[in-house]
Design goal:
The complex is a heterotrimer of chains A (about 300), B (about 375) and C (about 325). Chain A has about 300 residues and is an all-alpha fold. Helices cover about 70% and strands about 0% of the residues of chain A. Chain A has 12 helices and 2 strands, in the order ααααβαβααααααα. The radius of gyration of chain B is 22 Å and the shape is globular. The two termini of chain B are about 25 Å apart.
């Protein structure tokens, strides 16, 4: 057990943990916007899969990773708007429409993969970029500042999301729409428009989350590449109490424990692997249960808005 | 029913809730049945385009889909086989939904039920069948209920959101099954043969659920599920506990105001939901596979949510809804075989159907509301 | 990929449906027509592993026998759900297929139930070794430990850090037997080598498998191997780091990264399928167990195309293959 806490191991955990956290961060930050505006989107995993496929397909055929990333964002936007149409305009039960969106995204991404790419191929994805100065730091430079641009992007998105939500008029509108849609409406805020925008933005970020898997972290696509990471991302929004910093904490906790358990399997071979694999899930529940986290969810979450009632 | 309605705070009242408490009208019923059918048709139309792009003939594909599921007794029976676990999961989803709790932990609860049932039936194999089968069913129900109770307790006592905890509990159940099937519960014959396939020993024959039609997989679990559906209806609408549970779902604030312990009822709903999902796991083991193996859930934990929706979140509605959804799954497999399209098309189609059906629900509600308004206006004129 | 329609089976299906075919044992095969084989598979035909290996074998047998006029071949993929697979088997048997292959160890109980109703149809299932004592059931399996041992011998000679990493989803089935053989091959060659193993618990979580491989590399491993599902993540990580080699199993994985893949153990079901067809045509509908082995060419070691294997390693591998074939080497302790 002691060898788990040596410097090389801790640095290895940090390196893997940062990479693992990347897709969760994008997807969970996007879902934070959707939920703060009052829309529960359980279909994040389906959007991620469509984003991952689109990015891979475009990058494979054009040779341009940036075009691939753009494709993932556009497809993510379309999927998000589909969710918005069903959930906001048609006021569907959101817990169920999200499951429908997930099934649709899982099926369609697999189908498109089968008919266009056919078999597993790898591409050369976003390469690690050494940040000037920071990348030259001893030890820390290797761990924190030699990742691909999409990894940096995920961590930069955290303060950006915080700033938008807490320090801009648009953020104020989002929060108002999620808490008191009727009051926001009476003050002239277009509830429907804000929710569409947030669900669409959530879709864009989920699409990029998928792209980070297929063209930066694993550099391939296969059926069900995300294997349920979108659901974990939704859970992390609750973990983070609908705050970008809290989401960052949740994503890092989950991913670092996941990286930790891999090292534990290597260094403590007598430990059952199946138990090690459970650790991130167990600890995430436990951490939330013991943390003093009583953030109230947005009051209007998952409740469709109809002008003139309430 | 003449129970007093709880005081409802203005804030939390919504159109949906008003509609739920309104008395049913025949026009509403027709709309409720006709619109989903239209929505399914619309989804299939989109699917036809996909089929054309794949180079398959949509007419032949859909003939296989409908004929395969509903045109033969084998297809009908197969649909009922799939409907059984779907209905059990859906009943749990409905109870949770009625208490305003979203249970996406059914996958894990099915595994918990299946694990417990397999262990119990093997450990107490000396018992005679009439004692072993009911006891095994109870053991699986209890394990599923425990898997639902944990998120319920975490929600009630510590405010941990159930979506977070059930997602995590699903993963934990899956790993637990991997652990047990990889070692303690693996079939000794697999070890002896050196093949190490992850499946448990076969259960003794007297632990199996009886077959309803010989040479098919239709088993007594189907009857159990229907009886339980009636039971859940009775519980929700004919007992005071069920009434309070629904009151919590309609408006937690109002329920609290009326003195109902809201967290306790949310906990109860998740526990019961887990129990029913656990039962789905048991009947799959005792009725279909006769052993525990990887992939036991077959995604029923998610498709059960859809079946619950098709049944309008009503336990009796869930009976035909589960059957229809089951037949959709069966027909889709037939379609795959008939025109040899990738199986992923099936999932795409089902996702579209769900999106179209949940979307169409709003139109149905609006029509119902318009009709109710017209009636109210009429009565107003008369009075 | 084949997308066009074959009208005959579709019409047959529809006819069968109209006739209310509910489990009758009415085989409608015509003796002069093509031999008809149906395969039911749990995963996709493009999984780079188990299902794909059978799919490709069927294609190869079909080509060898003279195309669709000699061998008609239908398949159902994605049949994770066992009752669906059972329905598919019954369906194919009702349509008069001569041989129905249930390509998943989880399908055993279904074969046991369907086979007695169709005494004129051959059923085959794998990987397992149990024919249930039925005259129309074949079983087939793969001795994955044999190729594992050979790979282990090569890996032990090629590692410079003396550390080898194993990755995979769950340690069961032929993933386990392959690893057991691999460990044994390494130990027999150089007992001082450390072998680390990680299991991710998920068959599709490539991101986690990539990090598992990164972990091994950070822990000093310069050679990686593991069950087929872990190949893509491992190769991705190995490519990034450079100087790390990969050994594959189930299918030839060299196409993914020719310069990194030293060798793959390849499952070749062609011989088994041809044997079963020949037996069926000769009147033996089942009752036999086939095992893919190095000695019957069911297992093959495919050396990487882009990696230049040192001659001494290659000859050690060939010696191990010969030893396993003649029984002088036992791949499992």
């Amino acid at each position: 057990m002691a060898e788990l806490f040596t410097l090389p191991v801790l640095l290895g955990i940090a390196f893997s943990g940062i990479r693992l956290a990347t897709p969760y961060l994008y997807a969970a930050l996007g879902e934070t916007f959707a939920q703060r505006s009052g829309v529960l989107n359980l279909g994040v995993d389906g959007i991620m899969l469509m984003g991952a496929f689109s990015a891979f397909f475009v990058a494979l055929n054009t040779g341009s990773l940036w075009l691939g990333l753009a494709a993932a964002a556009v497809v993510g936007l379309l999927m998000g708007l589909l969710m918005a149409l069903v959930s906001i305009t048609f006021k569907a039960e959101q817990g169920i429409s999200g499951i429908g969106l997930y099934m649709f995204g899982l099926g369609l991404s697999s189908l498109l993969f089968r008919t266009t790419v056919g078999t597993v191929k790898t591409i050369s994805g976003f390469q690690p970029v050494k940040l000037p100065l920071l990348g030259d730091l001893p030890i820390l430079g290797d761990i924190f500042f030699r990742h691909s641009l999409l990894v940096y992007g995920a961590f930069l998105a955290v303060p950006l999301a915080w700033f938008i939500l807490e320090r801009t008029t648009w953020g104020l509108k989002i929060r108002a729409v999620g808490q008191q849609p009727a009051a926001a409406d009476s003050l002239g805020v277009n509830v429907t428009a804000v929710r569409y925008a947030c669900t669409g933005l959530g879709g864009v970020l989920a699409g990029i989350a998928g792209a980070s898997l297929s063209i930066a972290l694993t550099n391939l696509f296969q059926e069900n590449l995300t294997s349920g990471q979108g659901f974990i991302a939704v859970a992390l929004v609750y973990f983070g109490g609908w705050r970008p910093l809290g989401v960052l904490g949740g994503a890092l906790l989950f991913s670092f424990v996941n990286a930790f358990q891999l090292w534990m399997q290597v260094l403590v071979p007598e430990m059952e692997a199946d138990i090690a694999v459970m650790l991130p899930y167990l600890l995430t529940i436990a951490a939330l249960a013991v943390a003093v986290n009583r953030t109230r969810q947005p009051a209007a979450l998952a409740k469709p808005f109809e002008r003139g009632e309430a | 029913m003449t129970q007093p309605r709880p005081p409802v705070s203005q804030l939390s009242q919504s159109l949906r809730q008003r509609k739920r408490s309104a008395p049913p009208q025949w026009g509403d019923l027709a709309a409720a049945l006709g619109l989903p059918a239209l929505a399914v048709a619309a989804a299939l139309l989109v699917g036809a385009l996909v089929l054309l792009m794949l180079g398959a003939n949509p007419l032949e594909a859909y003939a296989a889909l409908i004929g395969g599921a509903l045109g033969t007794s084998a297809g009908l029976i197969q649909s009922a086989v799939k409907a059984t676990p779907l209905l059990l999961v859906a009943l749990g989803i409905i109870i949770a939904f009625r208490a305003n709790v979203i249970n996406i932990g059914a996958e894990g609860q099915i595994i918990a039920g299946a694990l417990a049932a397999t262990w119990f039936a093997l450990a107490f194999r000396a018992w005679p069948g009439p004692a072993l089968v009911p006891a095994t069913l109870l053991a699986g129900f209890a394990a599923g209920a425990a898997w639902g109770f944990v998120p319920g307790l975490l929600k009630a006592r510590l405010g941990v959101n159930e979506i977070l905890s059930t997602v995590m509990m699903n993963a934990i159940a899956l790993q637990l099954m991997n652990l047990l099937l990889g070692g303690p519960m693996i079939d000794p014959a697999e070890v002896a043969a050196g093949t190490f396939i992850a499946q448990s020993e076969r259960l003794p024959q007297h632990a199996w659920l009886p077959r309803l039609v010989p040479q098919t997989l239709l088993h007594a679990g189907a009857i159990l599920a229907i009886v339980l559906a009636v039971g859940v209806y009775f519980f929700l609408w004919r007992t005071s506990a069920g009434y309070r549970l629904r009151a919590v779902g309609q408006s937690p604030e109002a329920a609290r105001y009326a003195g109902i312990p809201v967290p306790a009822y949310q906990m109860l709903s998740l526990t019961l939901a887990g129990g029913f999902a656990g039962l789905a796991g048991v009947v799959e083991v005792l009725g279909v596979h006769h052993r525990l193996l990887e992939g036991i859930t077959s995604g029923y934990g998610f498709s059960g949510i859809v079946a619950a929706l098709f049944g309008k979140l009503h336990p009796l509605g869930a009976i035909p809804a589960s059957f229809l959804f089951g037949s959709l799954l069966v027909g889709a497999d037939k379609m795959q075989r008939a025109v040899q399209v990738p199986s992923a098309l099936v999932g795409t189609l089902l996702g579209l159907v769900v999106l179209f059906v949940v979307g169409s629900d709003y139109v149905a509600r609006r029509q119902a509301a318009r009709r109710a308004a017209a009636r109210a206006a009429e009565e107003g004129e008369r009075g | 990929m084949r997308k066009h329609l074959r009208t005959a089976p579709v019409l047959l299906t529809l006819l069968a449906l109209l006739a209310g075919a509910c489990g009758g044992a009415t085989a409608t095969t015509s003796p002069s027509g093509p031999f008809r084989v149906a395969v039911v598979m749990p995963s996709a035909t493009t999984d780079m592993a188990y299902s794909q290996s059978m799919f490709q074998a069927m294609k190869a047998v079909q080509a060898e026998m003279g195309g669709e006029s000699a061998l008609e071949f239908a398949w159902s993929e994605g049949m994770f759900n066992v009752p669906d697979a059972a329905a598919a088997m019954r369906d194919y048997a009702t349509q008069g297929y001569d041989l129905v292959i249930a390509h998943g160890s989880q399908y055993g109980a279904s074969v046991q139930e369907v086979a007695p109703d169709f005494p004129d149809t051959s059923f085959a299932w794998g990987t397992n070794v149990d024919t249930f004592g039925m005259p129309n059931v074949f079983a087939y399996t793969a001795a994955a430990e044999e190729g594992g041992y050979v790979n282990g011998v090569m890996a032990a000679m090629l590692t410079q850090s003396k550390i080898i990493g194993i990755t995979g989803p769950v340690e069961v089935g032929d993933a386990k037997t392959y690893i057991d053989g691999f460990r044994n091959g390494v130990a027999a060659t150089d007992p001082s080598i450390t072998i680390n193993a990680t299991w991710t618990g998920s068959f599709s979580d490539v991101a986690l498998m990539t990090e598992a491989a990164n972990t091994h590399i950070a822990a000093g491993a310069d050679i990686l191997t593991g069950s087929s599902q872990s190949v893509v993540g491992s190769i991705g990580a190995a490519k990034d780091k450079g100087g790390v080699l990969w050994f594959g199993t189930q299918a030839d994985q060299a196409t993914l990264a020719p310069e990194l893949v030293v060798a793959s153990q390849v499952y070749d079901w062609v011989g088994v399928v041809k044997d079963m067809i020949a037996k069926h045509q000769a009147g033996t509908l089942g009752g036999e167990v086939f095992t893919l082995r190095l000695s019957n060419d069911g297992l093959k070691i495919a050396y990487g195309t882009g990696y230049s294997l040192p001659a001494d390693v290659r000859s050690a591998a060939e010696a191990a293959i010969a030893g396993i074939k003649d029984g002088s080497i036992k791949p499992l302790p």
